Amino acid sequence: VEGVSVTDPPPPEDSAPVGGSKSETLPSLKLKLLSAVSGLNRGLAASEEDLQKADAAAKEIEAAGGPVDLSVDIDKLQGRWKLIYSSAFSSRTLGGSRPGPPTGRLLPITLGQVFQRIDVLSRDFDNIVELELGAPWPLPPAEVTATLAHKFELIGSAKIKINFEKTTVKTTGNLAQLPPLEIPRLPDSLRPPSNTRSGEFEVTYLDSDMRITQGDRGELRVFVIA
User: Which InterPro entries does the entry link to (predicted)?
Assistant: First the structure.
């Protein structure tokens, strides 16, 4: 019986993840979520049924993982995270559930990869978006990377508030030699009511390679470490 602890009782029979079988473990639940969101183009191609499947799979992981305590696990936020799914993108705008340009044919904008870069020491929180901007023929499309720089703070055991600082746009591809351009921030008197400088979201699951968050408008987002 060496290696078997007599001080730790076996888990109760009803401790299985909500909606899952008792034999399902976190790795299998994470695989189920990844399978549910694969092929959805980060949520841009998601139907109502797809949204429900992703939400159910995320809830199983959250139940199995238990409460998140960022006061203890803040270091797990560190790094560059790749967005693989956002329920807000099903609205077909780059802003998700917030106002933003459409991703259809009205504007020649193609959304590329989306990342979040988090530094827990400096409290830097950057949203990085790769975009392809259409141009009149015969000019090739312009590839740009927009970095929306924020500072973040913890406002609860699992909730984060981000405060916007600046936006920097850098051309890539054929125009990579051009210097980055910092977009001036509009004065408060000229900013539309929906254009706020801050936002909040709750981290509902966090480990070394996956992060699940719920936005302040109910957006479900799934990230993997990049």
Answer: PAP, PAP/fibrillin_dom
Q: What is 40-92+107-225's CATH topology? A: Lipocalin (2.40.128)
Burial class (CB in 10 A: 0-12, 13-18, 19+), 93: middle
Alpha carbon distance 116, 100 (integer Å): 19
CB atoms within 10 A of CB 88: 19
* 1-14 pLDDT per residue, tens: 344 444 444 444 44
The residue written with tokens 């560059």 in the block is 80
Q: Would you state the structure tokens that stand for residue 21, as one six-digit string?
A: 């079988």
> Is-contact 171 144, C-beta < 8 A?
yes
The Cα 132–Cα 134 span in angstroms is 7
Question: Exposure of 177 by Cβ count < 10 A (0-12 exposed, 13-18 middle, 19+ buried)?
Answer: exposed
- Going from N- to C-terminal start, the domains of the chain cover 40-92+107-225
pLDDT single digits (tens) 168-203: 999 887 666 666 677 755 455 444 444 557 899 999
**Has this prediction a pTM greater than 0.70?**
yes
